[in-house]
Input
Amino acid sequence: MARILVTGGCGFIGSNFVRMLLAERPDWEVVNLDKLTYAGRLENLADVAGDPRYRLVKGDICDPGVVREAMAGCRMAVNFAAETHVDRSLLGAGHFIDTDMKGVLVLLEEARRVGIERFVQISTDEVYGSIAEGSFDEGCVLNPRNPYAASKAGGDRLAFAYWATYGVPVVITRASNNYGPYQYPEKLIPLFATNALRDESLPLYGDGRNVRDWLHVSDHCRAVLFVLENGSNGEVYNIAGGNERENIAITREVLRLLGKPEKLIRPVDDRVGHDRRYSLDASKLGRLGWAPRVVFEAGLADTVRWYAENEAWWRPIKDHDGEFRRYYEEQYGARLK
Ligand code: NAD
Ligand code: TYD
Output
């Protein structure tokens, strides 16, 4: 049995990754260290909670004692734990600095102490900033432009520093925007799908023409496992879906899939410092042998159907979680008046 630490495993991507590992690596044990913030949901892994190869440690990656306990006996670690929502980082960045930078330091220190064999730091395409034309490759200068992106860039480079300085076997991934099941309904696709299902307004920022590259979460999880097993120490790997779309196009497609009218679209004041376009050159990972499999149109249709069929997952968050309602009012209250 090989033991792997996955942090943030109760979040969107982490829970999809833990489920995939338990299914595809029958001789691995998975320790999931998660603080269970608003975004960490026990229900995301309810179907595997009883698996004898799975253990949840509830705790903070910023706490060295907790990290020591969770990493004990682990040969590998993948750090998904993070504060992840750009809009929240614009309302207050303190937790982002704590988890996305200081928490990474605590994990790296422990990885160094125990002599971990592989440490994957999950970074993001947002560390490169916005690009008008062409695509960023791994050699491009980092130019993060919002507090979330800046804190992720800090964690990204700190991980590299632990390889360069101490030889901790670090690999760093930078993926584009993910979509799929179990994504907290504050991000574009789940927010708009669930609002549309209730005939509520879809608050589209600015002119709606910002571009994101969409990657299905299952493709992202396969790519992370691929670099965990095949990546080279100290290297960065971009992970792209190859599906660049304007937000307005995504919005219209979500409405079309649900049979809802476009009059639900509500143009609202733009996000401050809103990055115009993200675009990745992922040919480095392609040369190693990884490619995305999910066709975007089919993946989006499946995803929207998942939210339609799983109201029992998102309704409690939107209706009964005071945290979500407080955030929604702060973020959208004045915009939607
Ligand atoms: P998410 O917000 O859905 O989940 C984050 C998880 O981390 C939650 O379970 C939360 O409880 C946990 N967490 C937060 N702070 C913690 C702490 N201090 N200690 C322990 N656990 C903590 O996030 P996600 O969308 O699944 O993103 C996962 C990772 O992937 C993040 O590192 C993010 O930066 C990166 N990423 C996300 C995307 C995307 O489109 N969602 C794209 C590229 C990279
Ligand atoms: P988001 O899902 O927050 O991801 P990120 O900011 O990390 O790319 O947003 C995706 C795009 O959708 C981004 O250009 C902002 C836009 N957006 C809206 O127009 N309205 C919204 O309510 C949200 C949450 C996002």
User: Anything to note?
Assistant: The mean pLDDT is 98.
